[in-house]
């Protein structure tokens, strides 16, 4: 009797302690231990746990919904190579980003670097566009809605950060200084509405031409798209990391 009462008290104290220690851990966070021999696997699980929260957004961190992902604007101005074009895409909505398949995670704690490999089965993009110029000698102009479906996308992300002492929490935090993204698209179908002031014959011919040559078009758009996406995810990540210290996210 006496001993089991002690054990109960002990268990109660333990669980109270655990409750206090984990009280500030929100449900979207899976904590990984720095010395976990399977740390990469643990981080993989914690990113997968984050997925539904990325779909809805995380209001507490001012992270908006990523489904669809809103990109305000992408500007492309190319004057050399096969594509000499000035184009602006605005009000871009990208659907499908949270259906990623996480293939690998490699964390390098000493160098504050995380390397991710992802696979995206499909992305659907809708935007407003305005363009003028030449693609493979063919003049192109138009303004209206742009649609694109992209499948079989391999993504490599390399997140380079640094540590700093937060004045707010008085603890060490991680901050992303460079979010490198490389997208490798397997297949694309694109359609630009209202090319050449809505001239159907010219417009249909140009849309066929664009789809036949989408790799050349995509290569021109790629750097601007990758930069824009990496800026967005750098901002999201830093909202996240500024809230939680390194000892909270990656305790010993
Ligand atoms: C993209 O896929 C959607 C849904 O399957 C389809 O309605 C749309 O026509 C496709 N767009 C293009 C440009 O292929
Ligand atoms: C757009 O292309 C059409 C057809 O080639 C041409 O008549 C028109 O002048 C062009 N508009 C601009 C703004 O370049």
UniProtKB/TrEMBL annotation:
Keywords: Biological rhythms, Signal. One of its GO terms (cellular component) is extracellular space. GO terms for biological process: circadian rhythm. Residues 1-22 form the signal peptide. Belongs to the TO family. This is Protein takeout. It comes from Atta cephalotes (Leafcutter ant). The lineage of its organism: Eukaryota, Metazoa, Ecdysozoa, Arthropoda, Hexapoda.
């Amino acid at each position: 009797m006496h001993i089991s009462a002690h054990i109960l008290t002990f268990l109660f104290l333990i669980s109270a302690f655990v409750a206090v220690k984990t009280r500030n851990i929100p449900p979207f966070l899976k904590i990984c231990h720095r010395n976990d021999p399977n740390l990469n696997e643990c981080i993989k699980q914690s990113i997968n746990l984050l997925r539904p929260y990325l779909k809805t957004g995380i209001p507490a961190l001012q992270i908006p919904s990523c489904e669809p992902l809103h990109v305000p604007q992408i500007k492309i101005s190319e004057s050399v190579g096969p594509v000499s074009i000035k184009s602006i895409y605005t009000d871009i909505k990208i659907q499908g980003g949270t259906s990623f398949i996480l293939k690998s995670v490699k964390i390098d704690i000493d160098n504050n670097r995380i390397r991710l490999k992802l696979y995206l089965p499909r992305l659907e993009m809708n935007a407003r566009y305005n363009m003028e110029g030449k693609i493979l000698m063919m003049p192109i102009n138009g303004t209206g809605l742009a649609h694109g479906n992209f499948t079989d996308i391999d993504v490599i992300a390399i997140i380079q950060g640094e540590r700093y002492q937060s004045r707010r929490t008085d603890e060490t935090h991680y901050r992303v200084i460079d979010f490198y993204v490389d997208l490798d698209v397997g297949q694309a179908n694109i359609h630009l509405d209202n090319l050449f002031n809505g001239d159907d014959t010219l417009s249909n011919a140009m849309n066929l031409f664009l789809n036949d040559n989408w790799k050349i078009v995509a290569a021109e758009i790629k750097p601007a798209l990758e930069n824009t996406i990496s800026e967005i995810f750098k901002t999201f990540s830093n909202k996240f990391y500024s809230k939680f210290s390194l000892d909270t996210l990656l305790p010993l």
